[in-house]
Prior knowledge:
- The structure is a single chain.
- The protein is an alpha+beta fold.
- The protein has two domains: 3-119, PAS domain (Beta-Lactamase); 137-296, Reverse transcriptase/Diguanylate cyclase domain (Alpha-Beta Plaits).
- The protein contains eleven helices and twelve strands.
- It is an enzyme of class 2 (transferase).
Amino acid sequence: xxxxxxxxxYKSIFDHSxxxxxxxxxxxxxxxxxxxxxxxxxxxxxxxxxxxREGIVDVDDPKLNxxxxxxxxxxxxxxxxxxxxxxxxxFIGDITSSIIKRNHQLWTVIIIRxxxxxxxxxxxxxxxxxxSQFLSNHDYLTGLLDRRGFxxxxxxxxxxxxxxxxxxxxxxxxxxxxxxxxxxxGHIIGDNVLKKLSKAIIKNVRPYDVxxxxxxxxxxxxCPETEIKEAIxxxxxxxxxxxCLEVIHGAKTIKTTASIGIAKYxxxxxxxxxxxxxxxxxxxxxxxxxxxxxxxxx
Length: 298
């Protein structure tokens, strides 16, 4: 290929590339910008050349200095950087930058591809995956762990108790007369009661306690490193808060109470998880004989 044709060939690539191409100096001066670069940065070639690297690159991007060091050492670099358009908006660009030597002078060729769409798609996918994972073991209504998710956490805590010879308490909560609330006011109001109840529980537990919706109007709390006396204090705070809850429905104010059972687990307990939960559940049914009550066999 003749020299003239060779120059025309690369000029055609420069002019018609869908990716932005910049001819620059290693110090950040820009000498040429193709039409794709002008479109990308919303500027004329003259404006881009006048601004230089600091006028189009987000200089606060920590990857910039790292990429410049790699390019200086290796002669080329590829990374993702944040760039600025004329209107002030930013976008993520996938760039390749290479140092070339022509006529005893160093130049750099930079190719930029706007990957904002791909980054947004990637973020949306990761968010959807995270939400899907969350929903796989959490209750959609209250945001608490569902029965399966709670039991898995409880099994982990029991394993730790066995290894550390420590104790744990389980608090089992059941609303009093919840079916009557649903039947008289409808499931939407019933759902509002459950959501308020879950917030009351969360407000009264410690950061390391594990809370789950066991089913329907049944809630369950795993309290690691906890003796009976402390578990009773937690349960009583929850009981009082539930008694004070109000859900307004038209001219009516809906109130409810809860019956709560407590069970203790330590390293001497030889039965399985289901048996442990059943003890707390049985104690809750003992509390039901009085309603709005906390029951435990001390």
